[in-house]
Amino acid sequence: MAPGTRIASVADFESWAGRQSPADLAEPFTYVVGLDGRLRLAPRRSEHVACAGGAPVLGAGEITFVREPGRWAVGEVSNQSTGYCPDVTSWPAVARALDGIPLRRPAAFTHEVVFRRCPACAEHNIVREADFVCVFCGGALPEAWNVDDADGSARR
Fold first, then answer.
1. Model pTM greater than 0.85?
2. Which of 43, 93, 97, 126 has its CA 20 to 30 A from that of 34?
3. What is the pLDDT of residues 52-102, one digit of tens each?
4. Whole-number Å distance between alpha carbons of 71 and 84
5. What is the 3-state secondary structure (H, E, C) of the chain?
6. pLDDT in tens, 39-50
7. Cβ burial, residue 84 (10 Å; 0-12/13-18/19+)
8. Residue 149: predicted pLDDT
């Protein structure tokens, strides 16, 4: 699958949005922010890793757009990506990518997902209600983000 569409300007975004159906525009899209700081968009059914062309990212999740008078804006944005499991601290990179287009955006993720890898069993977990316990083995999960590749390269 080809990487997602790179969006670097309002013209890029409007061209991309013009190719989407009204039904698709009503749904969230998969996004990543590449190491170049640019937003890439793909249909929601796309995997984040495919959207990024398999490369490491600064941020990833789901995003919706709304049409405001005379412009587009971000309606909702999350870090929900089980392919990259980005930390909530990836927000500044996402904000910079959106500001660089520019698109009006929320002040923070509208839905934050806390991901942790269990040190005991190595499974990825979504932490709910600040309960840092592995759902697979019952082990304690660290409070700091620790989901990275085995070789230590960050895929945030």
1. yes
2. 126
3. 999 999 999 999 999 999 999 999 999 999 999 999 999 999 999 999 999
4. 30
5. CCCCEEECCHHHHHHHHHCCCHHHHCCCEEEEEECCCCEEEECCCCCHHHHCCCCCEEEEEEEEEEEECCEEEEEEEECCCCCCCCCHHHHHHHHHHHHHCCCECCCCCCECCEEEECCCCCCEEEECCCCCECCCCCCECCCCCCCCCCCCCCCC
6. 999 998 999 999
7. buried
8. 56
Q: How far apart, in whole angstroms, are the C-alpha atoms of residue 52 and residue 1? A: 10
> Partners of 60 in the beta sheet?
32
Residues linked to residue 121 through DSSP beta bridges, in sequence order: none
16, 22, 117, 132, 133 from 8: Cα distances, Å: 11, 22, 33, 38, 40
56, 40 contact by CB (below 8 A): no
